[in-house]
Every structure is written in structure tokens, then in C-alpha cells.
Amino acid sequence: MIKNKILRDWIEEINTLCQPKEIVIWHGNEEQYQTIADQEVSSGKAIRLNPELRPNSLLYRSDPSDVARVEKRTFISTKKEENAGPTNNWISSDELKPIMLDLYSGSMRGRTMYVIPFSMGPVGLEMSRLGVEITDSAYVALNMQIMTRTGDEVTELINNGQSFVKCLHSVGYPLQAGMEDPKWPCAPIEKKYISHFPEENMIWSYGSGYGGNALLGKKCLALRIASSMAQKEGWLAEHMLILKLTNPENEVKYITGAFPSACGKTNLAMINPSIDGWKAETIGDDIAWMHIKDDGKMYAINPEAGFFGVAPGTSKKSNPNAIAAVSKDTIFTNVALTDDGDVWWKDLSKEAPDHLIDWHGNDWYKGDESRPDHPNARFTSPLTNCPILAENYEEPVPISAILFGGRRPTTIPLVHQSFDFEHGIFLGSIMGSEITAATIDENIGKVRRDPFAMLPFIGYNISDYINHWQSMKEKTTEDLLPKIFYVNWFRKDEDGFLWPGFGDNIRVLKWILERTENKENYQTSPIGYLPSLDYFDLSNLDISQDKIDELLKVDKDVWLDEIKSIENYYHIYGDHLPRVLKKELSNLKKRFI
Fold first, then answer.
1. Domain span at residue 345?
2. Residue 42's CB: how many other CB atoms inside 10 A?
3. Does 57 reside within a domain?
4. How confident is the model over 59-106, as pLDDT tens digits?
5. Is 186 a catalytic residue?
6. I need a surface site. Which of 95, 105, 149, 294 has the fewest CB within 10 A?
7. Contact yes or no for 395/407 (Cβ under 8 A)
8. With contact defined as beta carbons under 8 Å apart, do 502 and 317 qualify?
9. What is the total count of domains within the chain?
């Protein structure tokens, strides 16, 4: 029962504004989940997959206009534009609120309004934060059950006075009497708003039913609002995996890694090491909240309870643990349907089946020019489905290394280490990657800078964000801070990728962990420390010396061009280029000259 007056008043306010036909309080139990799932199947909005092949799993097909994050319709709304900074779409909160209140007026007519109390992070943990999402989407309610800790336990904390982030969502498709409800209701693109009010710890989303736009605990709270909260409170909310590694001597270390969406975070988070004696365990594949504790070390938690992963490209070869994780209890979105009631996506098997029902719901035959799945098709699975989930996945863990990376076919070597923490901040700031299908963008395939893999997710001014990272130095000593590395699994030559990747990435991680212990296994280059081949484990790996040399090559002429590109990118900071970036860019130039 909801007793908290702030929450009760807010529910009544939204009920009056949005005018739903009924209100359902989310209790977070299996019975309620199955009841709603059955309703979605009987209404034709969801397809229940073959229970013998894929137990307790559903398939949804979205509207073709609603398939990814819509960054152009995502806003940071503050009183002053400078608080949002140059990388965010900004609208004054005084201007935006009336626009959205008008859209919300009557927006839930004919629909059920779900009230979902949820915890990002284990319920009751000091590092966790609470939210309540009010939504008119059963798809959202079901996904939030998987992706967060929901229900009565959270309600009890709120009843006891713990603060929460107000998250309001509507698909923006009110139903009048006699209207037919589409299988995936949403609003036109120009009426979609994914709006964040960091000064009030509040999120308003309208018009989209797709994951990152509608599951407001995910990118909206866990990154955009949390990054703003973290700046005020002295911690970090980052777009990072968390991985537990145990070496053959049974020594345990933890790393985090920031990669733009669809650039291999989930694959690395579930790595199957190719070197005997190494063990990898998953803690999280997408978001890390990191605090420096009293011992001076940086600790991380995964605030999520599930995986919201990209299906295409996921296979037994690339990620056998993800394939196991989606074997049951999973919601699929925009994958293809097989004739026996299972799912299929690109690269799931070497050959596509002869016939499928594509993500539009139409017949598809092998040889058709169109692909049967969407490039950004997704799966939502509980963390507990992952066969290599770490036993201590709900505990804060000490971080030894932070990885940055992206898809760069040239320039960036396989791995290099920053000279120190401030140089590591610089490496994070210059991250670049080929644009992927995880966002609606006409420039797919081109390289864009994505600092810290946070470009779409920083909830405040990027200059202040960089300076906030630098402030971590003031909380502890350099030797206790995580070491920072830049990796690039995607370097190419005319024959394709130079590095085999997947399980062989453990070879890079092994070198990284040795560097966290200051082992003399490196060579110095102008961009940082590179592996010394005398100490880089290439045992039983079928790769030529020429390819290894190319993977670790730092070409002066290419890097002089890269420096020009960095200088051009840094124009976004205007007169507010952080001192640390100015200093490190100058140092990089000097090292090459």
C-alpha cells in the first residue's frame, strides 16, 4: 500500500492530467507479470514463443518509426542553457513543461496507468537510488520488471521517507470510444519528447514506446539524471560494463569498460576466456555507478537487474553466455519469428531459415533483399539467467582498471595505457566510434566522437563533467585510482579485422591486469604505454607477426591527422575547454614533435 504523501499526491495529479481508464500498482511479483503478459498476448500485441524452445518468453514488434533512441528528440531541460552545455539538446524548463503538459492532457484515455516503484541497484543498498515510473505501456511494465528491482519492497522504502525520481511516460496515443488500438501505439517523431529535468530529479517521456526512450530507469535515470546527481554528490554514473576476472593463481580483479552502444560491451561483459586457467564472471554489461570509499579505492555497482542487449551479431561464437541468458524468461523486440515459434536474428546461425516472419509481421524467404530482423532488435533478460553471473553481483566491487574503446578501423592500436589518471581522462574525452544502429542517425558508419561513451547520456554541461572526473583525484591518491586503458578490437586491413576478438580479448585483459600491478611488460609510445611483445600472451593464437605489428602500430602521420581532428572536436567546448584537456593535448603534440 502506498502511504507516502508525495507519491500519493503525484499519482492523483497524473491521474487527473492523463485520464486513464484504470490504475494498476506494480507489486513486482511473478503472478502480476504473467497476468499482464497473458493480456498482451490475447490482445495481439505480443506473441508467446514456443514454451518448449523458449520458455516464458515474448516477442514484440514495434512501429517502424519507433526502433531506437531518438537523440534529436531527447532534451536536458534546465533554467539556463549553460547548465545543459553544448552537447545536449536544451529547452528551458519554463518553455518545455507547458508543451508537454498539453500533450499529456488526456493522453492515457482508454488505457491502464501502471505505477511502478523501482530501485536502481539492490534494494536498500546505500549506493542505490529509487524511482517511480508512471506509464500507460504494459510493454514498459513487463520490461521494467526484468530490468529493475520493482514492487512492494521499494514502496516500503518510499513509505519510510526515502526520496525517489519521478518518471512519467506515455506512448502518446489516447483511445477514444470505438478506436482500434494498434499493436505498437506511439506518436509521430515530431511529437516525441524524452525530457530530463536534472534540477528537479524528474523525467518526462512522451510518444515513444521503445526501450531507452520508455524504460525510464535505464538511460534516462541511470545515466542522465544519475550523472547529474553524481556530480552534486561526488560519485560517477557511467556507461560501463563491470567484469570480474580471476587468474590461474586465483587472484580476483574487477574492471569497468566504456564503449558506445552496439560496440561490444555485452560481449566483453560475458567473455569466454580462450586462455586456460582464466575465469570471467559478469556483474553488469551497460552501466556502472562508482564511488570512492573511505579506503581510497573506487567501487562500482551495476544499478540494473537485467540485460537490454542488441540481438543481431549475438551468437554462440560471439557470446555463448548471452545465448544462454536469452534461452528463457526473455522479451524480444523486432527479431524474426521462425515457423516453429522461436526467434532468429542476423548471425544467430550461419544460414538463415528458408522462411521467417519478419519484424514487420510479413513473410520472409531466404534470398529476399530485406533483412528479417531490425539491426537494433533487442532482448530483455534477467541478470540471473546469465550462466557466468558473479555470485557477488549485488555488492560494490573495487575497480582496478577502466577501459575506453570503440569501433576504429584505423589509427588506434589494439590496446594502450594512459600515462596517469589525467591522461586517462584525455583518452576518455577523445573516444571515437563508427555510428551504429543503436540510435536513429543518417550518418551510420561514419566516425563520431563519443567522450566516455557518454555523449548522449551526460545530464549536464560536458565541461563540468570532465572537471568532475578530474575531481576524483582530490578524493584519493593516484596509486589507488583505477588505471586507464584504451582498447580497439576493430582495427582492419584489406582482409578484414586484424584481431580475432571474442574469447581472445582475455589476452589483452591479462596484459591490462599485469599493468595494474605495475609489471614491466610495456613499451613507451607518444600516445601511452603499449604491450611489449615479450610479455604479451599470444600462445596458441594463429596470427601473423605482420598483423600484430599493424595492431600495435602508432603511425606519426596518421596521429598528426588525429590531433587535428581532436582539435576540431574540442571546439564544442568553446571558451570552456577544461584545463586538463588543454594540457594533455599540448603534451601529446610535444611527444610527436
1. 307-385
2. 10
3. no
4. 999 999 999 989 999 999 999 999 999 999 999 999 999 999 999 999
5. no
6. 294
7. no
8. yes
9. 3
